[in-house]
Amino acid sequence: MFKTNPILLKNLLADVANGKIQLPDFQRGWVWDNARIQGLLASISRGFPVGAVMTLDAASEIRFKTRPIEGVCISSDIQPTTFLLDGQQRLTSLYQAMLHDGPVDTRDNRRKEVKLWYYIDMIKAMGPDSDREDAIVSVPDRKITPVVDLSKPEFEYKNHMIPTERLLNSISWMLGYLNYWNEPSAEHPESNATAFFERFNDLVLNTFGNYQLPVINLTKETPKEAVCTVFEKVNTGGVVLNVFELLTASLAADNFSLRADWDSRRASLYEYSGPLQGVSPDQFLQAVALLATLERRRIAIQQGATRRQIPGVGCKRRDILDLTLQEYRHWADKVEVGFKDAARFLLEQFVFRSRDVPYGTQLVPLAALHVELGNELNTADAKSRLERWYWSGVFSESYGGTIETQFALDLVQGADYVRTGTEPALVNEASFIPERLLSLRTRNSAAYKGLYALQMKNGAADWLTGEALTIATWTSRDIDIHHIFPRAWCDNEADPRIPSKLYNSVINKAPLDAATHRKIGGQSPSHYLARLEQDSISLEALNQGLKSHWINPDHLRADQFANCFVERGEAMLTLIGNAMGKQVTSGREVFWNALNSAGYHDEYDDGAEEYDSFGDIAHDEAADGRPIQGSSP
């Protein structure tokens, strides 16, 4: 797959000059500054290592649109034999300084673009105590200062400044130098010009002429995904070659701009819906690969392929890199529509913006399923099964690790589930433990975001108006998730004090509009409820608003955090179970143990009976198929 060989620097630069070595067009442009070029030349002049170069045989299965290294002028019909993957900046620096007929395009220490000529000060280079970098001189317009002029060869001889473009072919310059200093009137500072140049030749010129660079050559057998992986690891100074970049470069060989195509589709997706504003080009390609590989599998089965010959469905790196231009063009429009259909589905689940999507990665199989199933998703049963698959993925938190294999299962098993009712592994194996509610405290968790949306989907209403929290009210009233028992009260006034790990739990949070949240402030529930009632809200209407959030009004008015916490936690487990289509274990004991460890030791015995009544209503209604309190009918 690869071999490592030392190659003479002069041979590498010759291949650069004649176009045998070219850059894949995804490589960024020339960026090295003057100081780095001087350091590179100084290191080579002393035979120090400057790192390896990585190349790829152009005869491999990977096709790139290519371009020559900056400064090389060749015919556009010259095809390379080798792609330069790593080492662009070093070889460009050396080519421009040593072979290019003109100054080097670089930058000064202020990052200003400049054109410089490079010389080696022979006297300094030969000094016993000199720093070789001090001997590498860069000048604009062939002048060091207004006094030192290097615009003619005789001026170079006089100042002992050999141009770096003469280092690999120095004979004519050497003869000119010796003729200049062997004139009767000339007095060489080292007495004997010939002996001096011989020493310079031995110590410096021969070092450049014999210098070898280690070259790691990826052979034509190297698969695309290996090139992508290797490039990501070694090319830290250049463009990160992710799968999108590599496929872009590959399709460019067919005169197709994947980047321009994606830019257009991204604008369309982002403009279409808030949930789609986090979709990446890699995710788009994953959905395309899923559908393309599924189609290949169907065709193989139709053609009677044996089990071993039937290709798998997937969207791993190699699956994406194996996409042909024809396949991409066939599926790209369908996938774009699929993502928009997925966005509509998310809006129906009360997920309204990208930051609230539980798993952005789950959008990939969701979009692919919409393409695969199409109009089959228009029935009530199909929609119900898709929702159950979706929420099972959210609350089982199945998209946090390696996901490409899960995506393939989602497409194959998910489509079969919608069509036949055969449960996929994701749905069958999904589970949610009560302890998880205690650790859901921030938006970093998919289940936290899921519960935020699920509360609104199941009828959470505005406390002041009693209106259901729809996308219209969410947009116009700045709905967000807020504490029910305020943090300030929990920290300073509650007796016993409530630890942050409990009051920051999702159990103590509800979707509320900005106006309601401002009225709540940092007061105790008993105070802020009284204040809300003063705003001409009837007691009954306010109670209904609280119940729509699975909050017992009596417990809240009595500032009973413990009973309210346990009761609402149980209601949330019921919500999750209903969404996943399965019974979730009661969390009553788990929640009370957490409260007891915080100092609550059956303080609210009177509330326990109320909790049983309220909780039983929620569970009984869910069990016989009727909505739980606060849910939409």
Low-confidence stretches: 602-633
Largest sheet: 6 strands, mixed
Structural class: alpha+beta
Cα gyration radius (Å): 36 Å
Per DSSP, the total helix count is 30
| Number of extended strands | 12
Shape: elongated
Range of strand content: 5-15%
| Total count of domains | 3
Question: Which labels suit this protein?
Answer:
about 625 residues, alpha+beta, about 10% strand, 3 domains, 6-stranded mixed beta sheet, disordered C terminus, 4-stranded antiparallel beta sheet
Layout of strands and helices, then pairs:
Blueprint: E1 2-8, H1 9-18, E2 21-24, H2 34-45, E3 53-57, E4 66-67, E5 82-86, H3 88-98, E6 104-107, E7 113-121, H4 122-126, H5 132-135, E8 136-139, H6 153-158, E9 161-163, H7 171-181, H8 193-210, E10 212-218, H9 224-234, H10 243-252, H11 258-272, H12 281-302, H13 317-321, H14 325-348, H15 363-373, H16 380-395, H17 404-420, H18 425-429, H19 435-439, H20 446-457, H21 471-476, E11 480-483, H22 487-492, H23 500-503, E12 509-512, H24 514-520, H25 525-533, H26 539-547, H27 553-557, H28 561-580, H29 588-597, H30 605-623
Parallel strand pairs: 2-5, 3-10
Antiparallel strand pairs: 1-10, 2-4, 3-5, 6-7, 7-8, 7-9, 11-12
Helix pairs in contact: 12-14, 12-15, 12-17, 14-15, 15-17, 16-17, 28-29, 28-30
Structural features, described:
The chain has 633 residues and is α+β, with helices and mostly antiparallel strands. It folds into three domains: 1-236, no CATH class; 243-429, no CATH class; 435-623, no CATH class. The chain contains 30 helices and twelve strands.
